[in-house]
Design goal:
Strand content of chain A: 25-35%
Largest interface: A-B, 19 and 11 residues
Number of helices of chain A: 5
Largest sheet of chain A: 9 strands, mixed
Oligomer: heterodimer
Strand order of the largest sheet of chain B: 2-1-3
Strand order of the largest sheet of chain A: 2-1-3-4-11-10-9-6-7
Shape of chain A: globular
Chain lengths: 225, 78
């Protein structure tokens, strides 16, 4: 299982994403200016502050050369995981629905949150079958998930909401307490919490590993098919 | 031609920045202020103003969450 982790100018969480993915498979760095995805099975668009969040979070990174290849990769059914800033980039690139707005509190929030796994049967959550919530940290100022009301209804009905903040845990005012959504075909997933920061007992929770393990299991199945 | 693009949050979307400013003004002694929204101003010199809407749709604004207004200013003045 080979993961590719993108580095944009201003990214910072690609470092932990490489470490996390490396615990589950092979992990390589994908430079924003390169169009070569190096034959990876999955692409991770990491957290951080790509292009300094200039203009709008993720607005500039979406036009990086590597993102054209990621769009093609996603169209062909490849797995794409967007974490925090990565989620923002994927929304700006219209690879995911909705948008991320400033936290209702206008504050930078950095804390552990409890996440309910709404769909434990997807490429990104199939290792979360025990019915327990995931304990994963968030750290962001612009994490309020928004979509127009009719679009929200469609997302809920089609099972595209994969993770929800547990009752009382919503740190940013995301509509419907949405923490992570996927696209219609279920191969592109974005979430605001940082699974790559919850992979080692040193930081308290290893629940984040389950997302990477899910992706490896999914990729393994596809090889057999 | 000098153009200004005003980008503002779409009506109906919660704007906590606008609310924060609206709350701060009375504390400074300014009464009777409501409906405050905070947006963004982008100024640019363009040779082909026809392409401005496309620039707005693709980069300068996110049409899902923002409205934009293009203002063409007198080419002879800033």
């Amino acid at each position: 299982m080979k993961f590719g982790v993108i580095r944009f100018p201003g990214s910072c969480d690609e470092v932990d994403a490489l470490d996390a993915a490396g615990r589950v498979g092979e992990a390589v760095l994908l430079w924003h200016g390169d169009r070569d995805l190096q034959g990876v099975d999955a692409v991770i668009v990491p957290g951080g502050f790509s292009y300094g969040d200039y203009l709008r979070v993720g607005a500039i990174a979406r036009f990086a050369p590597v993102m054209e290849e990621v769009a093609e990769f996603a169209r062909a059914g490849g797995l794409v995981l967007g974490i925090c800033n990565g989620f923002q980039v994927l929304c700006e690139a219209r690879l995911l629905p909705g948008a991320l707005l400033p936290n209702v509190s206008l504050r930078f929030i950095c804390r552990q949150v409890s996440l309910d796994v709404v769909r434990p049967d997807t490429a990104f959550t199939r290792a979360c079958q025990d019915g327990r919530p995931l304990s994963i940290p968030v750290k962001h100022t612009t994490g309020r998930f928004y979509a127009p009301e009719d679009e929200l209804g469609r997302l809920e009905a089609s099972g595209q909401v994969l993770l929800r903040y547990a009752p009382g845990e919503n740190p940013n005012g995301s509509l419907h307490d949405i923490a992570g959504v996927c696209n219609e075909t279920g191969n592109v997933f974005g979430l605001m919490p940082h699974p790559e920061h919850a992979v080692d007992p040193l930081t308290g929770s290893t629940d984040g590993l389950k997302i990477f393990e899910s992706m490896r299991a999914h990729a393994a199945d596809r090889v057999l098919v | 031609m000098r153009a200004r693009v005003l980008v503002r949050p779409k009506q109906g979307i919660l704007d906590p920045q606008g609310q924060a400013v609206e709350r701060a003004l009375p504390a400074l002694g300014f009464q009777g202020v409501s409906g405050v929204h905070v947006g963004r101003l982008i100024e640019l010199d363009v040779e082909d103003p026809e392409r401005l809407p496309e620039m707005c749709e693709r980069l300068l604004a996110n049409p899902l969450i923002e409205d934009y207004e293009i203002v063409h200013t007198d080419p002879g003045r800033p």
